[in-house]
UniProtKB/TrEMBL annotation, chains A, B, C, D, E, F, G, H, I, J:
Protein name, entry field: Cyanate hydratase
UniProt similarity note: Belongs to the cyanase family.
SUPFAM superfamilies listed in its UniProt record: Cyanase C-terminal domain, lambda repressor-like DNA-binding domains
Acetylation recorded as keyword: no
Organism: Yoonia maritima
Catalytic activity, EC: 4.2.1.104
Lyase listed as a keyword: yes
């Protein structure tokens, strides 16, 4: 029954598959797609993976650029349910980030408390850049995160 | 038996407790301690927590600054065993970092592959800064990570 | 070594024990303590359990009210590390709350998205009340939560 | 074999898919659907997700409203098996609720014991509202839960 | 610090240890203790283990019977935090009960739904008896549970 | 390959689906089916769910009653592999049973040891009844379990 | 408080420590201790580890043999709570047994069903021997388990 | 794509399904199949389940006996990847074996060390028999394991 | 929808299946394939399993050798997401490696710190060989790993 | 009670602490200790950590070298129970080894099957070396493992 019911509609996973296929066919890069729709590469890739919602305008621009079916626009605008299945990620590139949180998490917390007060860095009002920094001992990956400081409420 | 055997020697946990107590008594900040020993606040806090090893010179400077017992120097120089007990951290300030890895981990991976090739950002040849960025809608926490790109070997 | 080092200072766990002992001895209630320091019972209990930080003023009022040692003031002001050890709580009173999140979590999410947009209810800029509502079929527990809506950033 | 056996009958998952598709096509909202069948948005969404059972009357009203096949009525009336697969939810909007239970669960428990006695708030004889509260510093999500107090039996 | 702070007061664990020691010394049985205080053996043992709260009257009777220190009365009256550390119990006698829930849980659920409607058996308004039933093929353990039926609310 | 190989034979899951479909179509209840084949409702439901094996005679009676295909008889006679996928069940009706084991498991164990000796209640030589007990404060669910006492062997 | 309360009584862990110390001092072996009290080595070691209960007679014989304090007798007679903390054992010698259950568990189950019917091998009415079997390619460890067949009840 | 690619070849799971179907059709038993190919029932069942590799000769004998397609021979010869998905098995017949490892694992280890030295019983150079032992109090299941003693290397 | 979308493109899993099928058909070995493309057996197998990325040149050589479809070349060049689903591997051959890490991990760490300083062996700039070493007491498996030493950064 | 009972005897943990303290005081290295007792550094460190048993001769040599109390000899000779508490190790130096098993485990397995047959590399009849290999792009850590090939038995 389900197959019949759901095949008439695209979901986020379908749109991600369409985007990846179109990106290959058109020889696009994430940098290039991001520039075309006027957004950052991190946010653009994340939204294409179904981990962020697009505004109508950005969704239309993406659909136009990648020649996706028009039904994809509404799907790209939907609020995603953010799910990851590996509590501890196994891919080495992602695990290193998990390790950094394990090793430096208490340090980041202490410095936020010292520098701002009792609160956190928001992961919602948040942005991130990933860039390449040339270095003669070997180029470096630079990750810059910025999140609004949120102080705990007392009531 | 054990109590007798181990009380004669400081371990990393003892030195961390001594540092925290001295920091309070002397009214120091992590920023201030870091400046005094000529290192960054992130690295300094991390080494004081027993999550990084100090050079002899930096250990001596710290011991002098905080008036720690001289035996602490050798302890600060030891290579730590980095252990965290919560697979998923519960403190909200640290959890948000875990969440960022869950949501944006695959994106960071994709952009590293696009920008560098098949490899990772090192978490060993690595540094990090945490700073406050004034913003009229509410100041922001900025976290900058930089790690050497390591390409996979083929043999 | 550690015992010597740490016995000179109170930590959050010690202060919680002192508060509970004093509360019993003085025949106080959480409602009463909260009223005395001019805060809500939920926040007051939470801060006494070491799960929230007090302002200097509130800490002084509490120490005065419960005749705690003056060193407790600084401890109550510290930013706590919020830790819970049971991923799934076993106490029936707390488990029911976990169950409500399991059953109604996706519903709350859907209604927030419908009512506000792509975002969340903050658990930081947040407050909560627990009250008794008389009811002839049996009185009811009312829990009211209020958190600032935080919309996802796009960049 | 199974495909043949089960395709002749709708299950709760199928009906949920039909509801979501019909809601989109008809441009309905959860608020609107709830009002149409004379129930609250929280309960209505939950029952549509297959996490609560409908009375015959409400099921008929919903089927009529959304033009679902008549077989859906009996499915909506069935007692669901409530299953959630993530012990710790990853979606940020749902995780924040889990975090609130972790941080404030013991506080809610203490206040129930102080205000009512040795017992719990029922999650069965229970209702909940989610509303938007305008606020000049940013609107707030208000969640109100009400459950019957159940005192422990002694025998 | 903590040792000093807490040694002045008995907690539930201490009272359990005092009860077990007194029970041995006085040659009492759980059946006997239960009869003496006019309660069932299941509830009596459970309250003595710190898993249920006693009324003032029952606590006094127990303290008198077992010659416990008078401070134990208030402790026995406190609402316990019910904690078990093994998600899957290893002791064979307890594991068999866990296995019964695994094998027959869905069956009990189906029969409750068929016999009562959409709801559950309360574990709060609940009582249990454990008795020996003579049988020529080997005596049998009989466990009788009775809990109030709680129907799900719709709102 | 697999589809071809296995579609020629019914397995326990198929037979369960056939039973549920037939039960609906014929307007049967578990009580009624159990009475028809001369067994208890608990055992009958459990065997229909594929969690117990039927004798040839009972399997034939069931197949006749529900007009199942004759191949179902052999399947109903097979020894099942009893599997449950949720270590901690999430459905509230089943979770309450798990909670009872957590809270009262050690009590049941203590009373078995006091009443019988060092041993357990068998979950194999075992039977159970679920019944409705009228009560003016609200009807109650009664669960009666009976298992053979098995004493530990010493050798 | 607790230390005072519990130091007056031996528990199973204490008696195990006393046995191990006495065994070393007296130069005994498990084989020898077992022979002296007229029981098998497997059961004797298990009871000495606190994983089985001794009869009064065997407990007395053991206490006499190893010159333990007389209070140890009652402790050895108590029904133990069998707890193991590693769900998957790490010690290679024990892990291999776990591996055998993983690899051959379904085979043992199939052969029991074929040879006996729908039931299990009891782990309660159970005994085991561990012996050395000389073999020119390297001696072998022989483990013989024997448990009563228990057939599932139907009711 | 995958379906096309893999349907041309049998894998171990397919061959297991073919064996079970053929065994039913031909009215064979595991005992009988084992005798026909000149191997033990434990090993034969295990190899048929895809948990051991057959020699070419045994695979041919089995294929001939059960009239399997000739492609099955190569599949039966392949080294299996031994996977079990339940860390703690739920089926009661298999769980009892897990329980035996939990209760008696340290005992088996102690007796191996006492009888052989510092080493283990191999689970690779290993064999096992399951037999029925008549007993007037109820027949018993006998499991005999034999594995080569492997002493730890020192270098 | 998805089936249509994805069947037009090969993914890493498809290519692995094609390689395994071709290897069988052509009677190739991993040693032989590796030699043909001028790489080591470990790396070649790993890349064929989709756990490493190939250069264009090596991918072309492999596709030519195994007569794979030309679309496979691009797939073999893609950076893989390295995922393993068993936290603790169950296959005995792989588990032994996990056990070696558990037993000797702290030793390898100590010797790296003694021999190199505070750092690690890279698992990215890494290579490995597996060879057979004849030995009259039984041939041995030799595994040689070599990874670049990476010293921790201080900043 | 326990403290009194166990303080009279050293256990493996005590001896490890004594070794580490003596090593520091005497300015020894693991390389040096190993050379002094005529064993490899890997095995020597492992035995000193209590993860392997020493022969009487090696234990005496070690005790003499490090001026340990003579009771340490018997402790060093005992068969250890090998326990590690982190299923997934967090220390980066050890995690990389875990990662290598995750990524290359199936490859090592495939090459062992191709090169030897259906069997494993023993982790018992096993040895390992860790050495430094100079390299102009950065020195490398070389880990060489050698374990006896064990072929699966068929019976």
């Amino acid at each position: 029954m389900k197959d019949q019911l759901t095949t008439s509609a695209l979901d986020k996973e379908d749109v991600t598959a369409l985007i990846i296929a179109a990106k290959k066919e058109l020889g696009q890069t994430w940098e290039g797609i991001a520039a075309s729709i006027g957004m950052s590469p991190v946010w653009t890739h994340s939204a294409c993976m179904g981990m962020n919602a697009m505004s109508a305008e950005k969704a239309q621009a993406l659909v136009l650029l990648l020649q996706l079916p028009p039904e994809a626009i509404a799907v790209l605008e939907e609020s995603p349910t953010k799910v990851w299945s590996q509590t501890v990620p196994t891919d080495p590139c992602i695990y290193r980030l998990y390790e950094i949180v394990g090793v430096y998490g208490p340090t980041i917390k202490a410095l936020i408390h010292e520098g701002f007060g009792d609160g956190i860095m928001s992961a919602i009002d948040f942005d991130m850049q990933v860039t390449r920094v040339p270095n003669e001992k070997g180029d470096r990956v630079k990750i810059e995160m910025s999140g609004k400081y949120l102080g705990y409420n007392a009531w």
